Amino acid sequence: MVWLENIEFVKSDVFYKLSDLLSVAGDILRQGGVVKSIGVDDALRVVEGHEVFHALKLLGVRRVPISRGRSKEVYVPLETLGFYDDVACPGLRVFDNTVELLYKNWPTPLFKLRSLSRRGLTVWAKWEAYNPFSWSIKDRVGWYMFTKALEEGRVSQLLYEATSTNTGMTLAAMAAIHGVRARLYLPSTAQKSSDVWLKTLGAEVVRVSKPLTVDFVGDVEREAARDGAIHLNQFENDRNFEVHLKYTAKELDLQLRHTGVFPRAIIGGLGTSGHMSALSFYFKNRYRGSVKIYGVQPAVGHVIPGIRRIETGMKWVHLVELDGVVDITREDAVNAAIEVARKDGILIGLSSGAVASAFLKIADRLEEGHYILIFPDNGLKYAEIYSTYVKD
């Protein structure tokens, strides 16, 4: 007999690295479900099907098909396993606390962009500025890394992190909520207002002379070890990839299915590479290779807050497939953001501007259809930069 059980009640003593599970998780996405049950003993401990069990946890289902003893052949669709349950927003949006204001307020909005749509190309933006702590996609990463570390008993009274601003804002908020002291290390290129946001949230700010955040992650790791602080390290922590696979990708998929839209391509910026790698993995498998994925990086010699070049070192982008990487100058990113502001009336950040500019750069060679742009944040934090470009 095969029955469904709450995944939280089923236990496995086997540990897998993220890279070990991607093949199995990909099979499940392509199949749209599982084809075998998970064998368990009387205490609901997995005895057969460990990889499938952990892959289902990675994908974020609520229930798993189990059988006593050995696995049995059975097909159970992902929807039956509660695959989309975590990304359904409560209708009246009332929350018990500010942490619920984040994860129970998803999905973030998906909307058409008049300013960029043209010649049979319909452009949609998924706008991550609706996240409450940093007004950016980094709320997902900071929250998930911190929450999982808390569940594992790894959070001490000190938290150190290298950040260009947004992840730091989220971790400062998490630290404030949980009574932890946060010390955040910022690169020389981060806007001055970052210090104000982070200090207002109660964090200590350390300015580093290096221009790229990734360049001083090792220094932060050593200082954290010296002081007994937890260093979550967004650049290496697999929770960065997992949160976007479990939430961001599924949200977007559910929104598109609800709207009846089939995406030709998804375009987004490369920073840590967490969200675009997860989106690539999800959509390449769930849509069986029919969705193209384009990454966006700064052109050589240009600095665009929130994104960087692949050769500076990214963990997850090398585990997935990209159909292309588009280089964008800082000026092009700002100009595209201004165009969106003046035609669609929304203020997007520089990395969002880079994504918009990348779409415009490749639009002439795209087929008719629907295109999804991932806008990571809003433009309010970048007034210093915009002020040098805006003219009467």
From TrEMBL:
Keywords carried by this UniProt record: Transferase
Alphabetical list of PANTHER family matching this protein: CYSTATHIONINE BETA-SYNTHASE
Species, as recorded: Pyrobaculum islandicum (strain DSM 4184 / JCM 9189 / GEO3)
Residue ranges of domain Tryptophan synthase beta chain-like PALP in the record: 105-377
Cofactors, names only: pyridoxal 5'-phosphate
Domain of life: Archaea
Lineage of producing organism: Archaea, Thermoproteota, Thermoprotei, Thermoproteales, Thermoproteaceae
InterPro entries: Cys_Synth/Cystath_Beta-Synth, P-phosphate_BS, TrpB-like_PALP, TrpB-like_PALP_sf
Position of the signal peptide: none
EC number: 2.5.1.47
Gene3D superfamilies the record matches: 3.40.50.1100
Molecular function, one GO term: cysteine synthase activity
Protein name according to UniProt: Cysteine synthase
Gene Ontology biological process terms from the UniProt entry: cysteine biosynthetic process from serine
One family name in Pfam for this protein: PALP
Family annotation (CDD domains): CBS_like
